[in-house]
Structures are given as structure tokens and as C-alpha cells.
Design a protein that fits this description.
By secondary structure, the protein is α/β, with parallel strands linked by helices. It has a single domain, classed as Ribokinase (UDP-N-acetylmuramoyl-L-alanine:D-glutamate ligase). Helices cover 35% and strands 23% of the residues. It is built from 12 helices and 14 strands. Strands 1, 4, 5, 8, 9, 10, 11, 12, 13 and 14 form a 10-stranded mixed β-sheet that branches. Helix 8 runs parallel beside helix 9, helix 10 packs antiparallel against helix 11 and helix 11 crosses helix 12. The longest helix has 16 residues.
Length: 365
């Protein structure tokens, strides 16, 4: 059974995401603590999917977020504009001159190498996006009047504050009302929840949001921590996950949340920070679909690989409404995104399809 997806002709946007977009500061091959210069990018777990769908797959996308109206806010906006993602729904907040009441988020990120893992050091307290609340966004205009085929958000944005959790619930309810497909990436981050109720609060919030989700994305740890599911025999180290155990986890989840039409995750065997075994699995309509395997995938920057997987899955369904193609596009897109720096994909659709077909890395001239 295929997903019920609106036609492109009936909607102003193929996809819209809701989430915080931060200024990523990257020391390249070095360490944050010893850096003397940083490369600037934009990035955010939810936004990265919109960027991938626009730049790699040519879909019309937009992001719902908020920035302070200052030079840093407009720098992040400029990155978003360069990526082709529509900025129509960005909320702007007045600058108080010091960041005492509201500010823009920064994310210092090390790529890692070999035995040294990647490190993320976000500086996002009191940001404009974290202060978004119900009533700030006209969802009726977005989903009802303009029309959107697919809406994506996730557990990172929902964890930023009590009001972002409430706004996420408001958004997914509105999308459901207007027949827009809703996807949600659980993306459990203990650090985001630890001062606002911890695991108990994470499960309370995510279980409420889950009632309105069509496509749930997350690994075994995400399902266990965010939704409270436990299956005996599951190895909690996702690097060494047993495929059968993950399947059991999904089957348990979809029994309680019968609204889930799709559940998907990447499967990473982490050998070093720069060498992973990579593949993906997707459940749809009672069947599991496994992607091509990418053993010993050499990684330049792993951050955002899962988001590129999510955008590839969204493309596969919106373009073909085919579960096997969705997981293949997702796995190939995520793999390619891991070979370039920054949060967002630099791949083309042609490269993704070549990778899906087993194409090698011979020089292209």
C-alpha cells in the first residue's frame, strides 16, 4: 500500500521543515580547543532535510525557524538562501544589542578522525528558535491555503524548550488535518533533555507527537529512549546492532502507534570515526526493506548523514511512492553526504543514482 501524498500541482511546496538552524563553526582537520580559524556553514537536523531535497533533488522546500535580526542572523539566512530553501516563514526577533534576551545559535563541530570521534559543542541557550511558541506560525495558511506535500520536524527542536514541544504538537496536528505527510526524526540527545525533565520528559513529549506521525525515523536507541520501547536481546550500542532485534523493536512500536505508516533508520557499524559499515532499513505496510550495503564507507564528516538519509527517503516516496526506492535513495544520499564537509549534502541526484547502482569512484572527466 502506497502513502497518500498530495500531487505537486496542488501544493506550493513539496516539503517544509520546522527546526532551529545554527551557524556551524568547523575547525577542519583540527580541534575546537586549539583552533585559530573556523569554516562557517549552516546546519540543523530538521532543516538539513529541506536543503538536501532542494539542492540534490530539485524539490521546492522551505524552513520554519527564527533568528535575531542582526548580522549573524542574516549570515545564516544567506546560507539558507544559497541553498535554495525558501525563507518565507522565518520569524525575526529584535536584537537587544547583547544577547541578554534572545540570540542566534552556534554549533562548534569537530569531524573526528580514526580513533578520535566527532564532537559537537553547541552554544544555543536562549535562542530565537527555542523561544518559538504555539500561535507564532500560521499553519492554516501554510498547510491549508498554500499546500504542502510533506512536513518534517524532529526531536532536537522539540527538546529546545517547553514551548517548542508545544509548537511541534500544534504543527503536526495541523499537517494531519490538511492531509500533509508528517515525518519525525526522533534524534534523541540526552544533553538537550537533562535539565528539563530528562528521560521521563523526553518520552512524555515524543509519545504525544508520535500520535500524529506517518513516517518515524530513528535508531534503536532513539525508539528506546524517546518512546520507551524495550525489546529483549537488543544491543544498546547501535554500532553493533542486530538487525533482527531492530526489526522486533519496530514491530513493537507500530502495534501501539498504528498511525505509523513507515519506520526507518540507518544502520552504522562504527569501526573508526572515518570508516563505517553503512546501510539502512525501512518498514512499510508490514514489510521490511533493506538497502544496498556500503561496507567500509570512508567518512570525511559524519554530521548530517542521517538527515540526508531522511531527505532521500522523502524523495523516494514523493517521486515514486515506492518503499524500496525510498530506502535506497536514503542510504545512498546519506553515504555521499558523509564524504563532504558540513551538515548539508553536496551530492547531485545523478551521483545518488550512480551510487545506488553500485557505481564506483573512478575519476569523472
Amino acid at each position: 500500500m502506497s502513502l497518500s501524498i498530495k500531487s505537486r500541482e496542488s501544493c506550493a511546496f513539496d516539503q517544509i521543515s520546522l527546526g532551529e538552524v545554527m551557524l556551524r563553526l568547523d575547525p577542519g582537520e583540527g580541534r575546537i580547543r586549539t583552533a585559530r580559524e573556523f569554516k562557517a556553514w549552516e546546519g540543523g537536523g530538521e532543516y538539513n532535510t529541506s536543503r538536501g531535497l532542494r539542492k540534490c533533488f530539485g524539490y521546492k522546500t522551505a524552513v520554519v525557524t527564527a533568528f535575531v535580526d542582526n548580522e549573524i542572523g542574516h549570515l545564516i539566512e544567506d546560507f539558507i538562501m544559497q541553498g535554495g530553501v525558501a525563507t518565507d516563514f522565518i520569524q525575526w526577533r529584535p536584537d537587544d544589542g547583547i544577547g541578554r534576551t534572545v540570540r542566534n545559535g552556534l554549533n562548534f563541530t569537530e569531524r573526528g578522525f580514526g580513533i578520535r570521534g566527532a564532537v559537537g559543542n553547541p552554544d544555543r541557550g536562549n535562542t530565537a528558535a527555542s523561544q518559538l511558541k504555539p500561535g507564532d506560525i500560521d499553519w492554516e495558511h501554510i498547510f491549508g491555503k498554500l499546500g504542502v506535500r510533506w512536513f518534517h520536524t524532529g526531536g532536537i527542536f522539540a527538546a529546545l524548550s517547553a514551548t517548542t514541544a508545544e509548537l511541534t504538537v500544534e504543527a503536526v496536528k495541523a499537517a494531519n488535518k490538511h492531509g500533509t505527510v508528517v515525518s519525525y526524526d526522533l534524534n534523541y540527545r540526552p544533553s538537550l533533555w537533562k535539565t528539563i525533565g530528562g528521560l521521563k520528559k523526553a518520552q512524555e513529549v515524543n509519545r504525544e507527537i508520535a500520535k500524529y506521525v506517518d513516517v518515524m525515523i530513528g535508531n534503536e536507541e532513539d525508539f528506546t529512549a524517546s518512546l520507551g520501547f524495550e525489546v529483549k536481546g537488543v544491543d544498546h550500542n547501535i554500532s553493533n546492532i542486530e538487525l533482527d532485534a531492530f526489526k522486533a523493536m519496530i514491530e513493537t512500536a507500530v502495534k501501539e502507534f498504528s498511525n505509523f505508516k513507515v519506520a526507518a533508520t540507518t544502520l552504522r557499524g562504527v569501526k573508526t570515526a572515518t570508516v563505517n559499515d553503512w546501510s539502512a532499513i525501512l518498514w512499510h505496510d508490514g514489510k521490511f526493506h533493506e538497502s544496498r550495503k556500503y561496507p567500509d564507507l570512508e567518512i570525511l564528516d559524519r554530521v548530517g548523514g542521517g538527515d540526508s538519509f531522511a531527505s532521500g527517503v522523502q524523495f523516494g516516496f514523493m517521486e515514486f511512492n515506492d518503499a524500496q526506492k525510498a530506502v535506497e535513495y536514503g542510504a545512498a544520499h546519506g553515504a555521499l553526504a558523509s564524504t563532504t564537509p558540513g551538515d548539508t549534502s553536496m551530492a547531485t541526484r545523478k551521483e545518488v543514482e550512480k551510487t545506488m547502482g553500485g557505481g564506483g569512484a573512478r575519476v569523472v572527466r
